[in-house]
């Protein structure tokens, strides 16, 4: 871009040097203080407000251009001959084949007769910058020729900001402008021939008239694009069932006015224009680029200047088009995927019960519970077989090991001497170790029956690993494919490769695929996700709440309406959009959307009463666990009492003999 600007400046400098001599020759034979030149200069000064450059195009030796060189506050001047300007436009078009940036602070001053202006100057001005201000100087042009000049300039070349200064003799100037939006149309809304009465002309014979003329001229230029008096504008907008939303299949009888339609109504009220609506599906109303590079839908209409405003706001994206211009941004749009709910089905059981951690935990404790006592038992057995003296057996090792095991398993009581009873204790320890994670998992499953964080897809990485067909509208596909590589992320690269536009022209069909077939995921705007979740989907049999959104947005963009770059209403539309955004209309729309979602939820509950998929936690939900726990306590107490009774009876029946009291050795295995 920088190289092109340098070439542009060098070319201007070269052409300016070549063409300035001709202009200076005109100055030698003219007087800046003559009445007509003085009036022409003051008109030009008023017209050049906020203009940065003036380009003089010398196209006629009979009608010299003098006023730009007589400005009291000089601005940068570029001088061309007509032929060199035509050559410059050709070179600019060849170098810049993608997009044009039409600057609004440019002004062109040209001169010539009617035929010369229509065929040799206006076509090139239109190609180079149709939004620039143009001052044309003529001599004794007839009324019909003036009308024809303005008619061709607007209806063929889209040049609106033209002032024609038609010199009448040596002392009078006729200044004319054109407002096509005050002109009548045919019954077919086609343009009628332009006549002199359709022009806004003033005959100036004295400099004292210039002050009021300049005020009226400024007012005329402003009113021309702000007050259209019912003039019809071509507006592209998706309107269905009283709403501009693609979600009418979900809304049903509920309708709402979205932010785009509300801003359009404000524009219509302030500018006083009538509507010629171009109705299409939302996808075509927003427009997209076909795989062969052709603009489709509204983008094609804008490219060919067939509409004045694309009122459905769309993501601000740098398409490979020449005539697309976005207004000030209205809101942001975040794209998220909606997927089938509980796609993984029984993954919660796998993650809670059969996962590497729980399996390793149980196996380790089981091995410790059985392995350590068995090793000690084998050591004791080997000591016995080797007939080691009893006093040399040493119980310190076994005692310390089993004491350590008791500490590990939180056993703080002395274990019995008999091997049978010790194995019972070991079995209880095993039960305690194994049952703890099982009952913990049961509790988690019981208190969280929806399993939202377990059975659903909750990240883009999980989505990429599934076999789901990732679907996206034609409009979003072009943006995502071109924005994805800039993130330098392999996940986005994989996402871009898997996107498909199959069966996405209808949101209804896309939702059916997710709910019924559970084989796809759809990329949509996150602000409408609550609307999708609140729908009852009467046309789909089965459970309606079968959609789950991935909460984290995939992409985030600015949104705005679009216009052709050649539109004269760019400034007007921008002022209104900016005012609406600053007044908080975006927040107001979001609150309205929340209200609609709540109404739809109420309607859904009335039509399909159902138990919510969540349980408020309270102690009542642990009742089965407490019943089992106390039953086990009761059973262990009964067994303990029976053991005492049996032991008491055995002692009563056995002969009383004085036994030598031996020192108690804990964890001693009796063979």
Automatic annotation (TrEMBL):
It is a multi-pass membrane protein. It is found in: Cell membrane. InterPro entries: Insect_Ionotropic_Sensory_Rcpt. The chain crosses the membrane at residues 359-383, 423-439, 626-646. Residues 1-22 form the signal peptide. Its main location: membrane. One of its GO terms (cellular component) is plasma membrane. It comes from Anopheles minimus. The lineage of its organism: Eukaryota, Metazoa, Ecdysozoa, Arthropoda, Hexapoda. Keywords: Cell membrane, Glycoprotein, Membrane, Receptor, Signal, Transmembrane, Transmembrane helix. This is Ionotropic glutamate receptor C-terminal domain-containing protein.
């Amino acid at each position: 871009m920088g190289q092109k600007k340098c070439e542009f400046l060098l070319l201007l400098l070269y052409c300016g040097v070549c063409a300035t001599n001709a202009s200076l020759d005109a100055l030698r034979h003219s007087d800046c203080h003559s009445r007509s030149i003085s009036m022409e200069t003051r008109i030009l000064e008023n017209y050049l407000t906020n203009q940065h450059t003036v380009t003089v195009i010398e196209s006629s030796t009979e009608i010299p251009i003098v006023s730009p060189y007589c400005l009291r506050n000089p601005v940068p001047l570029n001088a061309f001959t007509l032929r060199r300007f035509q050559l410059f436009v050709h070179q600019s078009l060849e170098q810049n084949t993608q997009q044009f940036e039409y600057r609004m602070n440019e002004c062109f001053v040209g001169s010539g007769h009617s035929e010369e202006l229509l065929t040799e100057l206006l076509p090139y001005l239109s190609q180079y910058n149709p939004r620039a201000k143009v001052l044309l100087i003529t001599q004794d042009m007839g009324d019909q020729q003036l009308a024809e000049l303005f008619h061709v300039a607007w209806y063929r070349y889209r040049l609106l900001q033209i002032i024609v200064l038609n010199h009448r003799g040596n002392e009078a100037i006729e200044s004319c402008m054109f407002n096509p939006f005050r002109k009548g149309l045919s019954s077919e809304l086609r343009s009628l021939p332009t006549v002199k009465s359709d022009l806004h002309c003033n005959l100036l014979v004295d400099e004292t008239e210039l002050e009021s003329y300049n005020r009226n001229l400024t007012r005329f230029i402003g009113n021309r694009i702000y007050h259209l008096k019912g003039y019809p504008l071509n507006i592209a907008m998706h309107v269905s069932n009283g709403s501009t939303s693609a979600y009418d299949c979900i809304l049903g009888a509920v309708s709402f006015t979205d932010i785009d339609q509300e801003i359009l109504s404000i524009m219509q009220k302030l500018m006083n224009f009538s509507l010629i609506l171009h109705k299409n599906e939302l996808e075509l109303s927003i427009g997209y680029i076909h795989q062969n590079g052709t603009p489709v839908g509204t983008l094609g209409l804008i490219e060919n200047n067939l509409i004045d405003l694309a009122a459905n706001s769309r993501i601000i994206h740098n398409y490979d088009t020449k005539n697309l211009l976005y207004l000030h941004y209205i809101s942001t749009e975040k794209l998220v995927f909606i997927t089938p709910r509980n796609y993984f089905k029984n993954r919660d059981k796998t993650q809670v019960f059969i996962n590497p951690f729980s399996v390793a935990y149980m196996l380790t404790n089981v091995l410790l519970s059985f392995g350590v006592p068995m090793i000690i038992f084998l050591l004791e057995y080997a000591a016995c077989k080797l007939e080691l003296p009893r006093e040399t057996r040493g119980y310190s090792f076994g005692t310390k090991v089993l004491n350590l095991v008791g500490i590990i398993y939180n056993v703080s009581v002395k274990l019995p001497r008999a091997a049978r009873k010790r194995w019972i204790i070991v079995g209880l320890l095993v039960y305690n170790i194994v049952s703890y994670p099982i009952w913990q998992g049961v509790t988690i499953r019981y208190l969280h029956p929806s399993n939202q964080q377990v059975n659903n897809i909750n990240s883009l990485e999980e989505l990429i690993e599934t076999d789901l067909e990732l679907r996206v509208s034609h409009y979003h596909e072009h943006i995502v494919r071109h924005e994805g590589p800039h993130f330098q992320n392999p996940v986005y690269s994989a996402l871009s490769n898997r996107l498909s536009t199959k069966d996405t022209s209808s949101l209804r069909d896309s939702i059916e695929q997710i709910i019924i077939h559970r084989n796809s995921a759809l990329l949509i705007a996150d602000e409408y996700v609550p609307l999708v979740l609140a729908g009852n989907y009467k046309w789909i049999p089965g459970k309606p709440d079968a959609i789950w959104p991935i909460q984290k947005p995939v992409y985030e963009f600015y949104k705005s309406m679009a216009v052709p770059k050649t539109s004269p209403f760019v400034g007007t539309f921008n002022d209104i959009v900016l005012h609406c955004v600053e007044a908080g209309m975006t927040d107001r729309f979001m609150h309205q959307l929340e209200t609609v979602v709540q109404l739809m939820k109420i309607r859904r509950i009335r039509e399909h009463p159902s138990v919510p998929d969540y349980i408020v936690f309270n102690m009542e939900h642990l009742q089965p666990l407490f019943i089992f726990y106390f039953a086990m306590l009761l059973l262990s107490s009964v067994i303990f009492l029976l053991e005492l009774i049996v032991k008491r009876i055995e002692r009563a029946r056995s002969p009383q003999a004085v036994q030598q009291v031996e020192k108690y050795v804990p964890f001693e295995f009796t063979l």
